[in-house]
Automatic annotation (TrEMBL):
GO molecular function terms attached to this record: ATP binding; D-alanine-D-alanine ligase activity; metal ion binding
Ranges of residues in domain ATP-grasp: 109-308
Essential cofactor(s): Mn(2+); Mg(2+)
InterPro entries: ATP-grasp (IPR011761), ATP_grasp_subdomain_1 (IPR013815), D-Ala_lig_Van_CS (IPR000291), D_ala_D_ala (IPR005905), Dala_Dala_lig_C (IPR011095), Dala_Dala_lig_N (IPR011127), PreATP-grasp_dom_sf (IPR016185)
PROSITE patterns: ATP_GRASP, DALA_DALA_LIGASE_1
Sequence positions that bind Mg(2+) 1: D262, E275
Known EC number: 6.3.2.4
Protein function: Cell wall formation.
Protein name according to UniProt: D-alanine--D-alanine ligase
This protein's encoding gene: ddl
Pathway named in the protein's UniProt entry: Cell wall biogenesis; peptidoglycan biosynthesis
Gene Ontology BP term (one): regulation of cell shape
């Protein structure tokens, strides 16, 4: 976090929030929290919802840069990043390629595999070729406990944990409502951790604990029974190992600027990569602000660090 910019250096800033994805509600909350923070710091910022305005209006508004707080499809998958590239408007975080790769859980795993990074065993279900009769074989191959995940949704939307072939078939059909490709992943029965990355720095890991079957949408945004541990309880050596792994995983997907990587810890203590997020939540329950606080960064310092990733001399520094 360099802190060498004055608020006026950022010019007129549009905070993109809302959008049309299934994560619109969370995006609105994230965006409003970030906007309030920027205004507290005397940044000339305003809210911009692409579901209510055309992106070309950014030119009419004489915007100097954009802070992207759009979660999910349309905002986190390279789509809006490509549009902003075409408009010539600088923006925060990962570019088109990094956003698209991280949004696709299947492509993420394939790249991590090719780089020798640890990830759970998996299968792919494609809507055009899926056969219900294959479910028993899939369950056996993946250890009889399987996570079903739409390939390109966030916030655990459309996900399910299954323990039988019949449940798997139902969960896959439900997931097809969100995506034509579905990731079927071996369930790791261990603690879940997340590592936030800001300007090339790995923040302290967070361990999540929930009474839910897994860390689902309700556990993330609505349920007060979810517990967050930061420091996470890892040894110094494990913390360093996890920070290195998550950094390598993020940059392998062409991630830039800031983001978050989620992992599971296996019974032998080793870690297994789950997914990378290029526009993580920034609500009062979100993980990046929690980790930043433990690292000595308040919310305003964090939002400023994120905004700095849109500056021209920052773009080549990460990834």
């Amino acid at each position: 976090m360099n802190g060498r910019y004055q608020s006026a250096d950022f010019g007129r800033v549009a905070v993109l929030l809302g959008g049309n994805s299934a994560e619109r509600e969370v995006s609105l909350r994230s965006g409003q929290a970030v906007l309030a923070s920027l205004l507290r710091q005397s940044v000339d910022a305003f809210a911009f919802d692409p579901a209510e305005s055309q992106l070309t209006d950014l030119i009419k508004e004489k915007v100097d840069r954009v802070l992207i707080m759009l979660h999910g499809r349309g905002g986190e998958d390279g789509t809006v990043q490509g549009a902003l590239e075409w408009l010539g408007v600088p923006y925060t975080g990962s570019g088109v390629l990094g956003s698209a790769l991280a949004m696709d859980k299947i492509r993420s795993k394939q790249i991590w595999e090719s780089r020798g990074l640890p990830t759970a065993k998996y299968q792919i279900a494609d809507k055009t070729s899926f056969e219900a009769g294959s479910c028993s074989a899939i369950m056996k191959k993946l250890g009889n406990k399987v996570m079903v995940k739409p390939a390109r949704e966030g916030s655990s939307i459309g996900m399910a944990k299954v323990t039988s072939a019949k449940q798997l078939e139902t969960a896959i059909q439900d997931a097809f409502n969100y995506d034509n490709q579905v990731l079927l992943e071996q369930f790791i029965d261990g603690p879940e951790y997340t590592v936030s990355l800001v300007q090339g720095r790995a923040l302290p890991s967070i361990r999540m604990s929930t009474p839910h079957t897994f860390y689902d949408y309700a556990a993330k945004y609505h349920d007060n029974t979810t517990e967050y541990f930061c420091p996470s309880g890892l040894s110094d050596s494990q913390e360093a190992e996890l920070a290195t792994l998550c950094s390598e995983a993020f940059y392998a997907l062409s991630g830039k600027g800031w983001g978050r990587v989620d992992v599971m810890q296996q019974s032998d203590g080793s870690f297994c990569l789950l997914e990378s997020n290029t526009v993580p939540g920034m609500t009062e329950k979100s993980l990046v602000p929690k980790a930043a606080k433990v690292a000595g960064m308040n919310f305003d310092s964090l939002t400023r660090a994120i905004l700095e990733t849109s500056m021209p001399d920052e773009l080549a520094d990460f990834g």
